């Protein structure tokens, strides 16, 4: 009830401005000990994925807290893990504004943010101030390339990001699937993907030796893939012994929203219209992986039933983004409760 009233106010504002105000409000509630006004009880439902014990199966997807400025506030809302970023080696402003568009009739968002962030050093300063990681909270850090880094040098940016965040992350996500950085998705193709994963895994092993701790590596993929591409990516994930895969990022498709205000804005579409596509890709990926690499399911989770469908399709964990914006903290509890119930029961 409280969030529905707050959302009415927030949705009357520019979307990016509202985003900043909402995050600041979440942090203020946590620091004041008042998170319980909007959050419900924490759902305890531990599961081991990527060698990590997650306290429940629902997490926050990357993109909401790019700079890790609101980790403690978000963690107080019942998530089993928080993923921050996408972060790049150097600060960058991202794409010109406006760059976030709500499609409330479809429970969707289109964004073309373009990895706007303060750079990896600023993120790490925020992470090290947060209490959540110090208390054993599961923190994923999502890394990407700077927009002005040539594609032939893209791997260098990922290696910088991995080396910088390794000591502070529970796991690291390699984002090669955002539609808002020019040519980034080219890294999902065979030779480019092989080279990227090979060099990242070699770096991961060196860093594990240096830190005395193995930090899992996950790859985040796009939903706009055909069956051959899905099979090729699955083969690469197995061949390079990746620790996890996140399926999926936002889509370039506009099926069902073309007629809506802002429906044809450029950028990535997320929310309810993406659910079927993202879940279908997840299912095909799970079949191709045959259990060798765990999957985190993302894309269009707007209710508990959607999250269960991700697990049925082959995911071990789910993440929220757009559904959380539309429904708030109640969705976190609903999803966590839904996933605690065995899939064989109704």
3D structure, described in words:
The strands form 3 sheets. An 8-stranded parallel β-barrel has the order 3-4-7-8-9-10-12-13, surrounded by 4 helices. It contains 12 helices and 13 strands. It is 39% helix and 16% strand. It is an alpha/beta fold and 346 residues long. It has one domain (2-340): Aldolase class I (TIM Barrel, Alpha-Beta Barrel). It has helices spanning 2-10, 15-31, 71-75, 120-129, 131-134, 154-165, 190-211, 227-239, 275-289, 304-313, 322-327, 329-340; strands at 47-49, 52-54, 58-60, 81-87, 100-103, 108-111, 138-143, 171-175, 217-221, 244-247, 268-271, 295-297, 317-320.
Q: Rg to the nearest angstrom?
A: 18 Å
Derived structural class? alpha/beta
Provide mean pLDDT, rounded: 93
Major β-sheet annotation: 8 strands, parallel, barrel
Q: Considering the protein shown, what is the CATH homologous superfamily?
A: Aldolase class I
**What oligomeric state best describes the polypeptide chains here?**
single chain
Q: How big a fraction of the residues is strand?
A: 15-25%
Number of strands: 13
**What is the CATH class designation?**
Alpha Beta
- Which CATH architecture? Alpha-Beta Barrel
The low-confidence runs, each spanning 5 or more residues with pLDDT under 50, are none
Distance between the termini: 27 Å
Please provide the ordered H/E string of secondary-structure elements. HHEEEHEEEHHEHEHEHEEHEHEHH
- Bin the helical content: 25-40%
Helix count from the secondary structure assignment: 12
- Count of the domains: 1
CATH-derived topology: TIM Barrel
Q: Assign an overall shape.
A: globular
Report strand order across the widest sheet: 3-4-7-8-9-10-12-13
């Amino acid at each position: 009830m409280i969030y529905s009233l707050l959302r009415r106010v927030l949705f009357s504002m520019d979307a990016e401005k509202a985003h900043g105000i909402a995050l600041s409000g979440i942090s203020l509630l946590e620091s004041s000990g008042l998170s319980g006004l909007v959050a419900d009880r924490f759902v305890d439902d531990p599961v081991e994925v990527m060698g990590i014990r997650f306290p429940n199966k629902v997490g926050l997807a990357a993109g909401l807290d790019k700079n890790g400025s609101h980790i403690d506030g978000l963690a107080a809302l019942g998530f089993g893990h928080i993923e921050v970023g996408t972060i790049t080696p150097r600060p960058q402003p991202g794409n010109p504004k406006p760059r976030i568009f709500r499609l409330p009739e479809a429970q969707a968002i289109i964004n073309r943010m373009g990895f706007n962030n303060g750079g990896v050093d600023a993120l790490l300063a925020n992470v090290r101030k947060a209490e959540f990681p110090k208390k054993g909270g599961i923190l994923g850090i999502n890394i990407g390339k700077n927009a002005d880094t040539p594609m032939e040098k893209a791997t260098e940016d990922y290696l910088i990001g991995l080396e910088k965040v390794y000591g502070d992350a529970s796991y690291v996500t390699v984002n090669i699937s955002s539609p808002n950085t020019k040519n980034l998705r080219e890294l999902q193709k065979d030779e480019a993907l092989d080279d990227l994963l090979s060099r990242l895994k070699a770096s991961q092993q060196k860093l594990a030796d240096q830190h005395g701790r193995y930090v899992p590596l996950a790859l985040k993929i796009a939903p706009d893939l055909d069956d051959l591409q899905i099979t090729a990516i699955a083969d690469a994930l197995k061949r390079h012994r990746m620790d996890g895969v996140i399926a999926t990022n936002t889509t370039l498709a506009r099926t069902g929203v073309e007629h809506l205000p802002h429906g044809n804005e450029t950028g990535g579409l997320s929310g309810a219209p993406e659910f079927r596509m993202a879940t279908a890709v997840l299912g095909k990926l799970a079949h191709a992986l045959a259990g060798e690499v765990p999957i985190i399911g993302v894309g269009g989770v707007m209710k508990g039933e959607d999250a269960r469908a991700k697990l049925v399709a082959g995911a071990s964990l789910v993440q929220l983004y757009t559904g959380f914006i539309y429904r708030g903290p109640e969705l976190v509890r609903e999803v966590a409760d839904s996933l605690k119930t065995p899939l064989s029961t109704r």
